Amino acid sequence: MQLVAVGLDHATASLPLRERVAFDPVHLQDALARLHRLAGPCFILSTCNRVELYAIAGHAESGARALSGFLASHHGVPSGLLGPSLRVRSHDGAVRHLFRVTAGLESMVLGEDQIQAQVKAALDHAREAGTLGGLLERIGSSALEVGKQVRTSTSLSRSSASVVSVGLECAESHLGDLAGASVLIVGAGRMAAVTLGRLNRPGRQRITVVSRTDARSARLAERFGTLWTPWCRLDEALQSADLLVSATSSPGLVVSAATLSDARATGRPLVCLDLAVPRDIESSAGQLPGVVLYDVDRLQPLAARAKAQRAAEIAPADAIVEAGVLRFLHWWQARTVAPAIRRLRVRADAVRDAEVARAIGRLRSLDAHEQEVIREMAARLVNKLLDSPMRAVQREPEAANLASALERLFELAGESRRALEDAGAGSGAS
Question: Does 64 reside within a domain?
Fold first, then answer.
């Protein structure tokens, strides 16, 4: 068994394509259940910059086909359109990728501080849906541990960089100091809270929250000491805003170009940050007079420049990730192949001892030294014969399948296995 990951991200796929394959949080449990029936233990990571499916599969190729096919069919996207943007990883490559993602090394904004919470949420959703399984649980928890270590032991995330911070820097380039700006935040989820954390200052009362659920808007506004307004008054709130930040999980448009056009009849300048995937704000709104619109892909060049400036911070984080990957793979290999290796060793030793005893019994004239020579020769033969297959089982990505083949080839199953395990119970600790 091995980990297989199939997905796309900001580096391989355009925003319109990422929108088409994004998973709606409301229906994520159903999607997980469908994927589990098809591919076994699994979880889905869907953020504004990436959509990735992870599963435990017996074979890398068949597992990748199953995940790719599901992603295309679930969203009704032709596989020919999706294929060129997909990246497929298996075994150590998939483990390493997940660890790097969780550490913020694969993010559009290097070291961004939201991805770890997003990975944790993806694991939580799978756990609730009953699709995670013990091995994925261990992989996910190891990835989170490595991500935490990167954040606490390196300077990678000390600036608390995120798509929100890059977007607000863009807004400042148009509006100047945002302390005096009237800000409207559409949404009441994690990204909205991050935005409020960035913007809110003691005594500031020009930030307003609005979402489809008034109760959530009120709770978020109370948490940060800002204002909120009912959803039915969104158009009115747009009229007085200098900065609009929209970050909902809606599967469709939240603010149309027509709505913005009506709200901005006076031509008052407005900067819009659309941090959602799928997008919240109609793209043509950016063509309205006085409206400047940034979506996550328009922020990407700015994030790339910032990443280049922080290149020196990557190496220490890479080292932590690689050490974590090696620890996990060592654990996984031991867990996967140790029982088969132990049974094969017991079987080989039993055959060796029986044949040596038979030979010595037939050669009655042998003295103690000669008998020891025979025993040593038999031990060397067995060790040399077993050396290559045992090393192959321990290092190959298909270790579990090789271990299974060993059990069949050397008849280590059924009653013979139980007998061998009983015979080797005392030697297992040696």
Answer: yes
